[in-house]
Amino acid sequence: MAILDGTTAPDREAPPARRDRYCALRDAALAELDAFEALDRAAVRPWQLARLREQLAHARRNAPFYRHRLDGVPGPAAGEGPERLPFTTKDDLRRGYPLELLAVPLTAVARYGESTGTTGAPTSSAITYRDWVRGNVSTERSLGHRFGPGDVVFVAIPYELSFAAYDLDRALETVGATVVGTGILSAVCPVERTARMIATLRPAGIVCSPTRALRLHDLLREAGHDPASLGVRTVLYVGETCSPAKLAKIAGLWQADLVPAYGTTETNSLALSCARGRAHLTEDRHLFEVLDPVDATPLPPGHAGELVLSTLRAEAMPLLRYRTGDLVSVDPEPCPCGSVRATVRHHGRVGDRLHVAGRALDRLDLEEAVLSVPGTGLHYAAGVVGEDLHLRVTCPDRPARLVCPEVTERVRTRFDVTPVVREVDRATVARAMDAMLKPGNLGLADLEAAP
Ligand SMILES: [Zn+2]
Q1: pLDDT at residue 146, as a whole number
Q2: Backbone angles phi, psi at 7, to 5 degrees
Q3: So where are the chain's domains?
Q4: CATH architecture of 18-117+130-350
Q5: I need a surface site. Which of 42, 119, 127, 211 has the fewest CB within 10 A?
């Protein structure tokens, strides 16, 4: 096409062909999803192992990191699992930053992202357009259970450098919802503005972290609104884990369903909710293992351990036995929704476990024990001082002299550890959490450092 100075524009693909390409990729991805869902549960693993061999060959051939890492390492034989392959860790990703893990040239990358870098040097993530569309259709299927035309939905999670917000945003758009992409903590739309807009636009759904759902609830109450009467049916929570007890309290405050979506920066979504609100693993795109986080031995179904994943269809960034650092348990029973995929429950991060008297306590199990005691509020803080577990609880509804001993007893019964439990006032908790990047992990040190 000639332009004003008489030169010729670069040779680019014409827009209609791009649209055709999108439609073809989308149709293929939806067909893949349907084909996977039609499998019997017994056929899932053989199907995955065949994909794993292809993925291993792709990684070994095309990703510089795996070319070195897998040099001389035999691949699994037909029907054999990934157990003999080496792990890939977050440190490997840091060392491979930015492009060593890529198995395609940068020209084939549709999206590039990075981790926040809050726990060390950043890591990169990359996807091709096919990778992206595959993820999009899964998310779209999941959100289609909850939202449709006429529903306003706020996306109040970070858009910067990650894929999740854009993925959810696109999926909502595709199912016909009205998307309000507020992001979170930005200069343009701080949380106070998001709260005001919720009061004005009365969304059917909010995508945010559980802690943010509480903060928005507080702000709306302070502004004189009854959040439960604003029409929010669903809070889709991402980015942070939460105990069932805390989720039940948040659901009660909003009078809304709380449904999970789970993923990592490196992989995008790993579990998406079904019509019953349970999180199903993306087993059509990943092979999952649940391992003891200390000695990396496999754990039986239903036991909480570290989630380790191998991608099965990733073009841009194949990952083999990637240790997510997330503690999960996979339900051995099928979900009543009828999906062939297993369901998963998140128990927090391996690195967030508390070590008391030779025992490792999972943060969410501890949260569940503490917050399920009647009269505890929405927040608690935990920390280890010397050999002792210390807990701080808010007691908005019952006297602390009744609540604290019950918390002590509940924790002692559950974990065989006798904690020191004291009350903390809500204002101190709020000041501490406002100063935290990840307020779901409130600890004693955060309370002491509260401004
Ligand atoms: Zn289900």
Answers
A1: 97
A2: -80, 180
A3: 18-117+130-350, 354-448
A4: 3-Layer(aba) Sandwich (3.40)
A5: 42
